């Protein structure tokens, strides 16, 4: 379980069935698994004290791939994969659009296709929109929808939608890094061994990023910095090493909790603990937005 937004320190206004479910999990589960510290703090405050903070389950699927991630050279990066809430004209989506201007970025969709189908934007008769073998969605078709929403040209080289997570991971493994506003877009990239930056605009993303030490950035910070500067600051060797050291500890805690509950895991970790030489790292420097990006931002807000 995990919080999406902040909750009051009371269960009075929650759906009673949800409260009953939490109570059953708290009393009966061998492991009452929650995603982050803020979720556990809230549960404790309202009387549910048996939860264990273990992060997102998806982070543990391919631990060796995560521990083999290396920091990219910001001068040599040429392509990226991203994801967001681009089907709405909101700051968190327009930040991604502005960030990837003049860069080879590929956008992976999640529920956008379902939303557009419900809105009647995807014709039943058109068989040329989606390639099931590659996961590719027609760029012209998607651009036609998005450019009406955002009133500007889209920068993305391709759009993908995957019905098989293995195909998703295989696709993202081709790129230098991930930077996006979708939690599972970032997790799929990490599973494939790709360095990732989470653009955190809700508690779910920030909880998990903080728990594992995943580099995270806000949409406001994205608007202040050029893309290569973000890669240089947020995917530095120090931050990648810190993330891997934290992840190693989280995985070992997961093993300990499951062993104590007498539940066997189908995964294991053979790598030694990564060495993290720095005790901390400096926050990325803030810069003034470029005049061109500043004007673009103003135009989007009109």
Order of helices and strands: HEHEHEHEHEEHEHEHEHEHHHH
Gyration radius (Cα, Å) is 21 Å
CATH C-level class of the largest domain: Alpha Beta
CATH topology of the largest domain: Rossmann fold
Shape: globular
Distance, first to last CA? 38 Å
Largest sheet: 8 strands, mixed
What percent strand? 5-15%
Structure overview:
The protein has 302 residues and is α/β, with parallel strands linked by helices. The chain has 2 domains: 53 residues, no CATH class; 203 residues, 3-Layer(aba) Sandwich (Rossmann fold). Helices cover 43% and strands 11% of the residues. The chain contains 13 helices and 10 strands. Helix 4 packs antiparallel against helix 13. The longest helix is centred in the last third of the chain and has 24 residues. The protein starts with 15 loop residues before the first helix and ends with a helix.
